[in-house]
Amino acid sequence: MADFQSIAQQFTQYYYSTFDENRSSLAALYRDQSMLTFESASVQGTSGIVQKLVDLPFEKVQHQISTLDAQPSSPEGGIIVMVTGALKVDDEERPMNYTQVFQLLPDGAGSYFVFNDIFKLIYG
What we know:
The chain is α+β, with helices and mostly antiparallel strands. It contains two helices and six strands.
């Protein structure tokens, strides 16, 4: 089994670069049992999650990761990943701080999918 820390780093790099370029392409990372909580609003299932991400009220976005922490989360090989960072949307000068937590589960085919995804902007 691959090292959970390197899997978490590879996942977050792929996730945020894909999010910044083409949010609809994130569909491959979710399953019907996946859940996203975005700023306290929850949605379940691939199509609902992707629709929520695509409908966010900005055209351009750029994520910058500040910290990334990961731990094994289940005997079956799950990984919990916590990210903090900053993001810039559209032509906004000041970045917004955020935190995001992912629960990654093995998909049975040698890869992982997002089972849980919680995103919060940090105000203050």
